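Researcher: Structure prediction, please.
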Amino acid sequence: MSAIDYQRMTREELINELMQLREEMARDAMAMPAYLKFQTRPPTAVNSELKGNEPTNGAQTEDRELLRAVIEGTSDAVYIKDLAGCYRLINAAASRMLGKSSEEVIGKDDSSLFPVEESTILMEEDRTVIAAGKTMTNQEVLTDSSGKQRIFLSTKGPLFDENGHITGLFGITRDITDLKRTGEALQKNHAELEQRVAERTAALASTVKALQIEIHERKKVENQLIKSAEEIRDLYDNAPCGYHSLDKNGLIIRINATELNWLGYSQEEIEGKLHLPDLMTPNSIKRFHETFPQFMQEGKLSDLEQELIRKDGTILPVSLSATAIYDKDRNFIMSRSIAFDITERKEAEQKLRRLNRLYAVLSETGNAIVHVNDQDSLFHEVCRIAVEHGGFRLAWIGQVDKATGVVNIVASQGETRYLENLFISTKGDPNGGGPTGVVLRSGQYYICNDFLNDECTRPWHDKARAHGLKASASIALKSREKVIGAFTLYAGETGYFDLQMIELFQQMAADISFTLDNLYRDARRKAAEIALQAEIEERLRTMEELREKDRIMMHQARLAAMGEMIGNIAHQWRQPLNTLGLVIQRLPFFYETNEFSKEFLEASTGEAMKLIQHMSRTIDDFRNFFRTDKEKINFNINQVIRQTVNLVKGGFKNEQIDITINCDDIPSITGFPNEYSQVLISILHNARDALSERKIKHARISIHAFVKDGRITVIISDNAGGIDKNIIDKIFDPYFTTKGPDKGTGIGLFMAKNIIENSMNGHLTVRNTDEGAEFKIEV
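Model: Predicted structure follows.
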């Protein structure tokens, strides 16, 4: 019997199959000769074949042959039993169903062929048919030749002889297992349909009506699907992202309108004609050939950044993700790829990198400002930092020759060959109409984001092109509110300088100008110190009274200390000021990003307040240092030592000098704490100068305080190599110095000894050790 896949049938097909089955069984019964037809009452003729008599005429022979052809040709099992239930005849289909040959079956009853329970049911059905004398149809569950239980639809009817006596029965059995199981599943989900089928004609009419309704609904669904397909196609084509599909060779076989618009091509120009690498930059082609084979194997690709080339030659950066489609044998068919235009993200990343580099320049410039001591060093450091940390192709600073109006290059870094034979003036001629000339005359800044095409830079186009200079920014440098020069940066990209970068550039120029003012003040301070020293010397020579002389020298020493303290204030404040500036500057930048939040604002505010409080404490420390002691008070030497070191540690740190403090638990003493602090500073500054002048590696100063023989002793030692034995006895003399008139007055150690021995009744001595000098203070 042929196998039919009822599970895959539609509802209409299943109904038709059920109706056809019933019709076929009816036709099979009608096709039998009269003497085999199942009837409700005895026929008028006698079945001579059942009696073992051979037919006697040609019509009966023809009927027999026809019967045999029908029986053997049908896929249903056909059989005849006698009244004892023994098989008298079976066809080939019955033999296959039983798994036995006809010889093995003929003459046996069901008990010899089926399990007890099944044979009992079959034999009871046979008896019922014979007793009723009419054809009956039953559903039977039987074990087939393979040992599996199958469901059969069996029609059995009585056989009559010519006298109307029942001589046996015939049976037609069809395997309806698949149909039954499918029907049961269908019956469960469609109870009404099964009921209509059971009701035959009425059910058929109802089914037709239901089918008509379903056809109508299907048409509605079909129309909706067509509409949905159109909407999906519209969504596919007009999505805010690109879609395309590639075959195994990378050929573009489908692409949506969005991606076509990005690239500037028509559908006819791309689909089936161009491979994706045909639209890629060389680096992206390389990545494609590296990743596409792996993608075809793994079936997934996520967030691969590639560069596509538009029809007009411009670059389109995209992020690609894809999944693979395979056939049933997992052979690659095509890809389903989605592309996102990441131009804005790339521009934002590039902008952020530029800003980060410029912030790095600002930070490094702040560090350089702390260390430089003259204008030339400042200018060279700023240019170096701009190129090395900012990524600029060229940085230079020019100053104006007031006599000629020509701009002289005083510092440069990067593509300095561009500056060879470069002529720039501050006059209104073409050589003075460029960015540098403009800022020198205006005292402002000038941004040229397209240097190679700007009309004002025409005289320098060829040189700039040869050195890859495409954008520039120039800004005036000022000292004491007067323009003294211009600082110019060059980038290798057009449109490089935006508003935020300009603001940072202005901040950088302001820091440089602030430092120039400080350098000018330092120069004036040094000049004032020299003049003050000359004045004090003159007054000391003319003064007759030692008291007045001491007062003047004390005043001079305090002024010198004040100069040192001003430098320390600059060291203590410069880095916090730079950091505070960066904290404030980043607030508007992060305000325009998703990273700005209340927590970020509170964190930035807290950081700024910590810096301000630190600077405020520094003011208090320096103010206390300069307060004059009017009378002796009790003070703790350990505390004074730590406060003094805190005042000067910034300068020592910049000189890379390490100060260590080791103080025992000592009692308080009576004296002048500020003057004692001045003594410590004088000794520390002399040690610092010696260490710096001799460029000692791993320079260090140690301070040890302890009690010995009832006196509080403080020992300050260094590793600078010691004091020349020819002058060690002179270092406490007034005006004795080895530093030169611009670096020392020669009265610091003199006043220190005077304070300790005259004001505090102590001793101040010095000696050389194996490593350096050692000062001992005993009070």
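Model: The mean pLDDT is 80.
Researcher: Thanks, that helps.
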